[in-house]
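Fold this: Nuclear transport factor 2 family protein
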Amino acid sequence: MTHSEEQKIIDLEQKFWSAMVDKDVEGSVAMLTEESIVAGAQGTALLRHDDYRGMARQGESLWQLKSFQLDNVKVMFPSQDVAVIAYTVTEEMEVEGEPVTLKAADATTWIRRNGEWLAALHTESVLGDPFGRDRVAA
């Protein structure tokens, strides 16, 4: 794929993050496949658009993304209509009224349908010791 196609995927990922900063839930939903998967520290979920809307509304009282920075961005195209982007992200957030800086490794799989790229899978792994030794035991 060309550099411009890679840049389009990077721009879409930035747009999705910006929609979260702006609390633009419908803007985010418009960028998702009808069913998408999310995987992270809380486990995995299969989300339909209404599920995503509910998750976003529920999160509004707990946390707010203030800003983000994507670094070490990698993009690949396993096929003409599938793109995978991976990167590290620094998130400046407010969680339960307190400032939090989170560093994570994220990846998103984008699927092109009818000429439009939509996110089908997003993963987030909080950075740290790969064996979890830097976490407090529950």
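Residues 20 and 65 are 7 Å apart (CA to CA). The domain at 3-126 is CATH 3.10.450.50 (Nuclear Transport Factor 2; Chain: A,).
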